[in-house]
Design a protein that fits this description.
globular; about 0% strand; mainly alpha; about 300 residues
Length: about 300
């Protein structure tokens, strides 16, 4: 054994490396990085301001002062409701700490990742909201049928004005579908609706969170904050992130072990090898069964 090998195995760097690869430290560091980046975007980044026509009917809808689902209520629906449901389910099922931890960590990363990606696209695209003209309050004498910039706006409230260029994609839609979509996947795995072909009642329970997310997305069109294109893309983005994050911690929904999360870091390799051996035995058994069937058929044919 060389000196470098002994240092790696027993030194500080070796201990740090083992901790990094045998814990959820990378996930927490990633979560902290995403949260920091998201907050920086919220407080310091202004969107790209596309030019517009003041007589464009597509952005001339009224500005709703009272939203059907304000930001704080969207947090309740997409964060606290899924968190409460998974905590209650795991508590009643007497889940292990590891299962509790994997469930909550996955939900948290799904929400912050979808928010981060949504805000990057929002500020880069700079698409005007359907109520931009009402937000902008163009100066008297601004000519129609002429492309103008944000300079013609007289609105003094910074957030109201600049938020008018954050239409695409819908943040409410992506946030709700990431949180409630994650919850739908969790319930589908726990109730084993794809593994055991359970009754339609259990399937409807799993679909309920997605219906709720859909209603939240529709409300953004009713408030003239977004159009169908905005909420559709936001919904797809949110559900994709929710499903992606779910699969990082849980097996596929048709798996035998769909109701149990992956083992902690550092033990996945051994477990995967074990699962692989089981699958190989199953496949081998099926092959043997087929060969036996062929041999039996040939035997019957020869006698007949």
């Amino acid at each position: 054994m060389t000196r470098s090998d002994s240092f790696q195995q027993g030194g500080i760097l070796g201990s740090v490396a083992r901790f990094w690869t045998h814990s959820y430290a990378p996930d927490y560091v990633g979560f902290a990085g995403l949260l920091t980046a998201y907050l920086l975007i919220q407080f310091f980044v202004e969107p790209f301001h596309r030019m517009f026509y003041i007589n464009n009917l597509n952005i001339s809808f009224p500005h709703a002062e009272i939203e059907r689902v304000p930001v704080w209520l969207n947090f309740v629906y997409a964060l606290f409701v899924p968190l409460g449901v998974v905590l209650l389910y795991n508590s009643f099922s007497r889940a292990s700490f590891h299962k509790h931890h994997s469930t909550i960590l996955g939900l948290a990363i799904a929400l912050i990742l979808s928010s981060f990606l949504t805000d990057i696209v929002k500020n880069t695209v700079g698409r005007p909201r359907p109520d931009l003209i009402a937000r902008c309050k163009p100066a008297h004498g601004t000519k129609p049928n002429v492309l103008v910039t944000i300079d013609v706006c007289t609105e003094t409230d910074h957030h109201t004005l600049h938020d008018g260029w954050r239409s695409f994609p819908s943040g409410h839609s992506s946030f709700s579908f990431s949180g409630l979509g994650y919850l739908a996947c969790f319930l589908a795995g726990q109730l084993r609706i794809f593994r055991d072909r359970k009754d339609i009642g259990r399937s409807l329970v799993c679909l309920a969170p997605l219906i709720g997310a859909t209603l939240i997305a529709i409300s953004r069109c009713e408030d003239y904050r977004h159009d169908v294109y905005d909420v559709s893309v936001g919904s797809i983005l949110g559900f994709t992130v929710g499903l992606f994050t779910y699969r990082r911690y849980w097996p596929r929904l048709s798996s035998r072990e769909c109701d149990e999360p992956y083992p902690p870091p550092g033990t996945e390799a051994d477990d995967r090898e074990g699962w692989r051996r089981v699958r190989d035995e199953e496949e081998g058994g099926s092959i043997v069964g087929r060969n036996d069937g062929y041999e039996m058929a040939n035997l019957i044919g020869s006698h007949s």
